[in-house]
Every structure is written in C-alpha cells, then in structure tokens.
Amino acid sequence: MSKPRVAIFDFACCEGCQLQIVNLEEEILELLGVADVVEWREAMSEQSREYDIAIVEGSITRPEDEERLWVIRSGAKVLIALGACATIGGINKLKNNFDLQDVKKCVYGKNANMHHLDTAMTRAIDEVVKVDYKVHGCPIDRKEFTYIMRCLLIGKTPEIPEWPVCVECKAKGNPCLWEYGQVCLGPIIRAGCGARCPSSGFRCFGCRGYIDNPNFDAAKDVIEKYGLNIETLKSKMVLFGSRQVPINE
Amino acid sequence: MSKNMNIEVKHITRVEGHGNIIVNANNGKVEKVQWQVPEAPRFFEAMVRGRSYEDIQLIVSRICGICSISHSLVATRAVESALGLEVSEQTDLIRLLMHYSEQLQSHVLHIGYLAAPDFFGVPSVVPLVPKATDAVKTIIKAHRVANEWSDLIGGRTTHPVTLKPGGMTTLPSEKQLRDLQAALRNTLADLGIIAKIILSVAGNIPHFERPTEYVSLKQINPPTYTFYHGDITSNDCSGKTVPVKDWHKVTNEYVVEHSTAKWTKWHRDSYAVGALARFNNNAELLSDGAKETAKTFGLQKGCCNPFMNTVAQLVESVHVVETSIAIIDKLLTKGIKPEKVTVKVKAGKGTAAIEAPRGILFHEYEFDKKGTCVAADICIPTNQNHANIQKDFEKLVPEIFSEGETAVRQKLEMLVRAYDPCISCSTHMLDVKFVR
C-alpha cells in the first residue's frame, strides 16, 4: 500500500498548531516515515494538488478564503480541522461580538473601507465544509494529534473525550481553582488536554470547546455557590467562541 | 539572456503567514518590485475591548504561535504598568528565563527549518533528513530542549499559562531548574555543532549591503544585551534613547494599498528590527561564547547585509543559553520562594516593549476603574520590517537582474526569509484610539 499523502493548509490563525506538529521533534521523522507530506507552506517549498488527507488550521473570515477551502475539501478524501480556530472558531470569534464595520474602523481607522481589508463573520471550518476529524485545543495537544493520525492510518475511529476537564483535573489531585476565586470553565469544557492550565494554577478558558451536553445548570450552581456574577461567567465563556450565546438565564 | 522578467510568488513558503513577491521588468528596465502582505486580518485590537485586565494576555498571546511568550509577557507588563504593579526580582528573572526559552525555540526553528534549506539548495528540511541525518537530529534536539524549557516555565510550549498581572501562577522547583541548567549546558555544545554546519554552507549567504537604520531596545543600567528592559534606540540616535512610552514617535505607522499590515519609518524611509538590529546596537554586551560565534562568521557591528540576520540569530542563541545558565545560578543561590500577589484594580494606561525573536514589540492598553480594557495599541516587529524588505528589494533586484529570473526569485525569497517574518502577527495592529 502506498503511503497516504498529507497536505497542511492554514487560514486566519497564529499558525501555533502547525508549530505543534514541528514540535513533535524526533517523532516527526516517524510521521514522515508513514505518510508523505506533499504540501506545507510554513515548513516546505514543495507543493502539490494531489493529496489524500488535508489538515486545515485557522478560521474562515473572508469570501476568498471560503472558496479556497472548498477547493481543498474537494481534493481531499479526509479533512482534519486542526486547533481551536478551525474546530470552534477560536479567539477569532470574539470579533463576532462587535459590528464588523466598527471592528475595521477600530483597527484601520480612515482606511477601513479599503477593499483588501474586508472581513466577514468568523466561522469554524465545519460551518463551511464537512469536517471528518477535529483536533481540539489552542494550541492542539501533540499527543492527541499523533493519536488521531495513528488511528486514521490504521483505519480506527479515534475516541475523543466526552467528559469535562474537571475529571482530568480531579484525577491529578489539583486543588479546585474556584476555591481561589478563579472563574474556571473546567466543568463544561471537553477534556483531553490533561487539565494542563489548571495544573499550572491557571483557570480553564475553554479552548477545546464545550462537551456535547454541558451541564450549564451545574455551572450556574457553582456561580451561585461562590457568590459570583453570571455576567462574569458569560464573559469568560465567549473567549474561545465555543458558542456566542452561552447561557439562557 | 531575457530582458523581460515577470516574477509572481504567491504565498512565499517557509515563512510564518502569507506574503507575495512581485517583480516586473520590461526590456531590461525594472518596472515594479513589490513586497505584498495579503494575510487575513484578525482584528485583535478590536477584540480586547470590554475584556477584563486578567484576560488580555490570554487573548493577545494568540496573535502569534511562534512568539506567543513575547506577546504574553509584554501584554502582562503593559497591564502591570497600567495598574501600577511592581514585580519581585524572582518574578523578573523567571520571566526572563521564559523569554529566553522562546528566543532559542524561535531562532533554532528559523535557522534550522526555514532558512537552512536555502543554504543547502533544497526545498525543505525533509530532503535533508536522509542526507544529513545527524545534523537534522542535532537541530531537532536543540529545538526540543527549547520547547521543554518553555513548557517548564510557561506551563505549555506555546501560549503560556503561568503569567498573571503581578507575578506567576506557578513556579519551577529548584530541582527542575538544576535539570534545566544541565540540559542547557548540553545545548551549548549542540549549538556549536549547528554553528559548524551553518558555517560549512555560509558561502551561500548572498553578499548584499544597504545602509539601514536598525532599531532595538537598549539597556544602559546595568549595561545589558537586552531582550526585555531598557529604552528604544537606533544607529541614527548617536547613543541616545527614546523612552518606551514615546514609541509612536519611532514607529510612525501608515497604511499601504498592497498590504493588510501597516508599515513604519523613523529617521529614514524604512528601518529594520530583529537579531541583526539588536546585534548592531548592543554587540559589545554579548556573552563570551556568543562573541566567539560572531567572530567565527566574521559578523561585526555595523553589518548591513540583511541576509546575515540568520547568523545574528545563531549568535543570540548562544547568548541566551549562556545567560540563562547564569540566571539559574542566581535563582538557586537565593532559593525559590512562593509569593503572594495582591492586585488593586484602578483606571490607567500602560505601555511596555520587549524584544520578540523578530524584533522590538510594543503593547499599550488603557483600562477603566473596573479594570475593563477601553483602548489597545499594538505594533509588531514584522510590521516594522515590511518597508525595509521593500527597500532592500528595490536595491537588490537591479544588482542581480543579470543572474536571470530563477536566481532573482530565489534570492528575493531568501531575503524575505532572512527577516524571519511573522506575517500573521503583522496584520494585527492599530493606531486608532477607541472609546467604548
């Protein structure tokens, strides 16, 4: 069997998730042994229109990017959304909370109406084309990326955690950050990161997106227990654009 | 030889972000040479409006995946300046360690993965794997150590989670610091090997010079090869400095039609920032090993060959590792002590500058009395290099025109790569004040 051909593409993002692929360090040599990376603009000058697996990083914010994404999708047997900007819109979705004209004016002032500075509402990749697999996180977890790639190469469906970050955080024996006055999104955000941020004493800010059935009522109970304002929780919940309207009060 | 030339490089490879190169020549006359930046703008400065002071570094860190630590650090310091928070010496040293880990990670990434393939005449590092396995593995190893180092101090390799206004959320243990120090000693040896590899192909670094204004931080008290403290200077300042809060007088940003990133100029039509700028302004303050490395490559203060920026990065890699070994000694001598941070929120405006791997980076924020962000202003190193890349293009193309289209195209791509541009960063700035 010939090696599957992999191409890596990026849209509006910080390219930090591609960097995590580079950060596989020695393991990347193993990846190159089982797959042919045929296009990867950030790291290689080689280019190809022939590929089986397209890995797409970033969100879609302009009409021309949407067209480019359609072309990529039509050429790929499998499409993987890489990182929060691609899977849930990520930090780019914060922009959607403002009037777009106002956003442009804020950044480019009197030049805001120049055509090349146009922008549209931010969308995650699956809001534009079909996505086969998602690698969550901002940035992605390198181990999860290799796990998903490995599953894909041997024809197995990867299992992505359907439980909240709190489960992993508790298993690590971390003290709960709510006890320290931090508004941590651990109770409603998808695990799989090993609770890295709370383990460093930093609240979960939701970069892996919500679990499929988040217990918002429990989140509200926690807010009440700690005597906090629901607006504070809502403000933290839109940070990574998981959903723009998080809670029905 | 053809007297006509039409080069259109759409989305130049092996750089962070999207840039285009255009060259048109007719009958031997160069009609158009242009460096274009079509990157999708992401409007960060608009998005921080209405956010709490606690969330700022978390958001703006996402401006860049390669230099997320620089963005997080400078944002945290700007917030601290706005809130009037002072940090302890221990916090300052630990943050500096974090900052140096990113310099090493970013420089090794650029030297080894992005720039070196040009020196070897291959399209990427991939064909080098079977040909020069040991060399590639040494580069990977240095890169891994840098990432493990970021991971230890920052909680993650990219987008750190240990910074908070006033201090750190978590501290490395003394044992972890001792282990890191041992790893860094090995890295020094690996950097020596990498230097030899680059030196063996240094003949392929193009000879090109254009007198340039170089802008960087300068720290006078105590005199330091600074990435972190100090004021702004350039080789046009006769040794004088400009306070960081007056950074607008330095950047003078403007919008051009073929770029979603803004451009800058100071004393001349353009200026450069980055490793070569820092070297040109502060070289005498480098660590001994770094000075030695510069000497091996014949890199001297006053160098105005932009292609030598990659060599300056190598010199700086040695410097940050040697300096960090000394910082760890200092921390261990005093012992790591837990700290309690109290933040009193108040209205205010704060500015900070830092040397990101690609050059000087400015962040400025204004908060209301509840600590909610009402104004932000960010200027990124690559923005400050765009005009200079254009000016280099304009001088370089006529000089090498007779070498033909392939060579011109290749050298222009190499030139852009030498600046190690971070293009997605550069499309996220603003100079317009806003009121909520």
What's the helix count of chain A? 10
Strand content of chain B: 5-15%
Strand order of the largest sheet of chain B: 1-2-3
Strand order of the largest sheet of chain A: 2-1-3-4-5
* Largest interface, chains and sizes: A-B, 62 and 64 residues
- List the domain count of chain B as a whole number: 1
Radius of gyration of chain A: 19 Å
Number of strands of chain A: 5
Low-confidence sequence ranges of chain B: 428-436
Helix content of chain A: 25-40%
Biggest sheet statistics of chain A: 5 strands, parallel
Structural class of chain B: alpha+beta
Low-confidence segments of chain A, ≥5 residues, pLDDT <50?
244-249
In whole angstroms, how far apart are the ends of chain B?
60 Å
Strand content of chain A: 5-15%
Q: End-to-end distance of chain A, in Å?
A: 55 Å
Mind explaining what this structure looks like?
The longest helix of chain A has 13 residues, at 63-75. Chain A is globular, with a radius of gyration of 19 Å. With 249 residues, chain A is α/β, with parallel strands linked by helices. Chain A has two domains: 5-154, NADH:ubiquinone oxidoreductase-like, 20kDa subunit (Rossmann fold, 3-Layer(aba) Sandwich), CATH 3.40.50.700; 165-237, no CATH class. Chain A contains ten helices and five strands, in the order βααββαβααβααααα. With 436 residues, chain B is of the alpha+beta class. Chain B has a single domain (44-426), classed as Cytochrome-c3 Hydrogenase, chain B, CATH 1.10.645. Chain B is built from 14 helices and eleven strands. Chain B has helices spanning 44-47, 56-60, 68-83, 89-120, 128-131, 133-154, 174-200, 248-251, 275-282, 288-296, 309-334, 381-400, 405-418, 423-426; strands spanning 5-9, 20-26, 29-36, 163-164, 167-168, 213-218, 231-234, 271-272, 348-356, 359-367, 373-379. In chain B, the strands form four sheets. Chain B has a three-stranded antiparallel sheet, with helices on one face. In chain B, a hairpin with a 2-residue loop joins β4 (163-164) and β5. The longest helix of chain B is centred in the N-terminal third of the chain and has 32 residues, at 89-120. The termini of chain B are far apart.
